[in-house]
Amino acid sequence: FKNQNKEHKIYGITRNTSKQYMAVVNFNSIGDKKYGACRWSEHYNTSRGWCQKCDPFRITQGWTCESIDTDNCIKDFQSIATEYDEVIEWIPFNRLSNIREIGKGGFGCVYFATWLDGKRKILNIGEEFIQSRTQHYAVALKTLPGSPTSPVDFLRE
């Protein structure tokens, strides 16, 4: 188990009722053959089409929203993602189309929009899981009344 210490984050040690010692490790860092091999390393994926060792770092690279605070907030969420189709991402406003107001109330306005890039999804082709996206995808945009123009203040709300 000593060599695996580099592979899995160890949180501690426990002992079951039959007094057998067990290591408490991060479940999401354990690859499984049933999820296929990572495209970037020799490890098995930790969920369908997702390698916990490689993908969180990869998705935090190559984009910015031009605000360091907002970038860092989103990248913090991305770095702890455990599945490809559950990743929070920066969506540039120009990747939304057909924007129209569909509701207004005390908590702000709601708009309909089409997300041109589509949401993340996993394709299961044979025995392989492939990271992909839907085509265009209908989404709702929500505003907060009096929301600040500073992204840092907006994220605090």
UniProtKB/TrEMBL annotation:
Supply the InterPro entries for this chain.
Kinase-like_dom_sf
Going by the entry's taxonomy, the superkingdom of the source organism is recorded as Eukaryota
Protein name per Swiss-Prot or TrEMBL: 2963_t:CDS:1
Q: Which organism is it from?
A: Acaulospora morrowiae
